[in-house]
Amino acid sequence: MVQVQDFSKLVGAIYDTALDRSLWPAALKQTAGFVQGVAATVYWHDAASKSGDVYLEDDGIAPYWRDLYFEKYVKLNPTLTRNFFAVTGEPLATADLLPYDEFLQTRFYLEWARPQGLVDFVSATLEKSTTNAAMFGVFRHERNGVVDDETRQRMRLIAPHVQRAVLISKVIGFKQDEASMMADTLDRFGAAIILVDAGGGIVHSNAAGHQMLAARDILRASNGRLASGTPELDAALTVAISASAEGDAALGTKGIAIPLSAPNGERYVAHVLPLTSGLRSEVGRSHSAAAAVFVHRAAIEAPSPPEVIAKAFKLTPTELRVLLAVVEVGGVPEVAEALGVAETTVKWHLGHVFAKTGTSRQVELVKLVAGYASPLAG
Questions:
Q1: Mean residue pLDDT across the chain
Q2: Interhelix angle for 4-16 vs 24-34, to 10°?
Q3: What is the pTM of this model?
């Protein structure tokens, strides 16, 4: 494994991106090297429309291949739907989503991955809503080989830090160009931002933070220290803030998302950003702060339509993939070509889908999926 000092520098570089988006390509390039891949990216996929786009990337994948993927091959990606069943933060490789030998026969591999020398992809879900999922992933080249246990462990180490940096970046909104400007612009943000010292003492709050503390519904000031009002959440805040004061790597996986709730039932999430190194130290020095706590309303994570359909009819991952391919691509020959399998294989799985869903025609499957995708379906 890499030296602790090198890992700490990498984590620090990732956190610096929360204040300066232009640093993401370099940070992702370092991250790809750490995971032993050739390129890293943060992207989103929509399971319903089979579309997507890149949020952040390094230069490991040429623009031509990136654009070609989202223009054509995203619809042929055999792992797309299965990613929506992933546990947030847990690394998944291609072989976790479908048999690797089957993957090697797909058009997606033969026409998009193989020409680039790519043999595997390890990803972690950062955030998931009804049909969309934000993902962090690293491409493996043939010289790296397929994903192994060490690759998974490295992803488990680094993915939480990427997740935290991305989420904090969303809260900040990239409205400042330099880290040194952050302390002077805190009041411009709608989200609550509270700077605290190593002991949790409040040293500065923006306007939204003052409002939140005064309301005492979500967070409050208790003897000058940040508190939530419940022992369990107070303990979680204390651990995250204390770890932040010790440096980037010390925070580990603690404090990625601390759930909070208001008396009216509204849910919030607090994210803790260390202010102990890199560009972020400018903010810390301005207020003698060790960490910044960002608090925003949480989006409700609802299961995606494919996940609901699979659970409702007890479909296997392969049966779900065939079902969605029939809806998206068309008849058995077209589905077989898109998935890179024999027509007899498609027919065999389709027979199981018909039996489990109580349908007998492809048009009925289209109506079934459409019903689950629409909140107005009766």
A1: 81
A2: 150
A3: 0.69
